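Submission checklist for the structure archive. All mandatory fields must be present; incomplete records are returned to the submitter.

[x] Identifier: alanine--glyoxylate transaminase
[x] Organism: Anopheles albimanus
[x] Residue count: 486
[x] Sequence attached
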Amino acid sequence: GITITYLSRRAGRVLERGSNSRQLTETDSAGQSAPAHLTQVVHRTSHAVLNTIQRKLSAVLAVVYGIVLARVIIWGFSYDERVTSNSSDTMKFTPPPASLSTPLIIPDKIMMGPGPSNCSKRVLTAMTNTVLSNFHAELFRTMDDIKDGLRYIFQTENRATMCVSGSAHAAMESLLCNLLEDGDRVLIAVNGIWAERAVEMATRYGADVRTIEGPPDRPFSLETLARAIELHQPKCLFLTHGDSSSGLLQPLEGVGTLCHRYNCLLIVDAVASLCGVPFYMDKWEIDAVYTGAQKVLGAPPGITPISISPKALDVIRNRRTKSKVFYWDLLLLGNYWGCYDEPKRYHHTVASNLIFALREALAQIAEEGLENQIKRRMECAQVLYEGLGKMGLEIFVKDPRHRLPTVTGIMIPKGVDWWKVSQYAMNNFSLEVQGGLGPTFGKAWRVGIMGECSTVQKIHFYLYGLKESLKATHPNYVFEESNGYH
């Protein structure tokens, strides 16, 4: 537009000069002017010529601009093709997976298996906080809160109380990895799948593994353990306090004192038992223990509490060699968790949002109190036992004194397809009726009284869902009230 106006003005000035020259020639020799109407004719003619020139210039310039614009667009497309062609030569990817094109939808479920358990809204909400970096002050304050809470539920004063990043298997690995060196003798009391896992792990770490074996529905007596310790003279004894594969509770009173009499450390798996039955780490002289955040505590999986006695910590500090796995090194991990009198150093990136969730789960336990938590679960377990008895269903662990309140094995009746029952319960009631594991696989279902499902209302719903699922999948099954241990 600017160019057209400029050219038009130049043309106008040229015509104006031409008009002035005509006016000069129209004067006579005497200097008199030509008639006025001649001058008007000249002006009208010049303006007409000017308008014609402007129109033609505008048309010409419009064509020129159109041609230039088209060339620019064509060049741009050509450039994009060249860039794309060059990129495709160096970056060739498979198409994105179609499975990720739909939104994630997870339905609510009533998690009444042996774990993981349902978390409270408070715990789940805690995970929505912003992710924190490894040395943020807010993260360290939360970790300190967790250490206080863990000392409370373990009933210990141990400074070396912390969390391992990973499931309870990670804690089992870390304790065995740190307390055992090549050739060290460890005695493992095997009557369930978790002791079997401990045998596998200790063997891989080069330990001299000795075992005593017992039935999965009966605990080891103090006399049996004493004879085995005296015979094998182990550096460590591994015991499972509450076995979630069977629902068996192993008494611990007196075991720590027995171990220390023979200069032996006591390692305890309390994954399924802690906060469901009394547990006293210091009073019972337990040297190393771990539990599962996703079990009775009602927190998400992926972070596992552990505690180590001063005696066990001295053993770790005086190892002949470093811990075989850097990630499990409890001297390094304990340093980051602030368990020792030394400056903190980076070990690994912790899952800050899981730490927030565990903190809130521990806060809920502290608010209710350990005694109330344990009583509530014991009452729920009694309601469960009575309900199963009325349905004619037997419990895997026959002696009530040795039953773990938080996990109960329910014997599968003869002729019943346990998988069909479990599937029906999930599909129709969103209720988890989980099968057996290890010694109870194919023999029992396992029901958990953990997390948010530790209420009498939930127990009644479980009994109803289990009965209806049995009736629907096995119409000829007859429910007969049983006697005996129920």
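[x] Structure attached
Curator remark: DSSP finds 14 helices and twelve strands in the chain. The chain has two domains: 121-368, 370-473.
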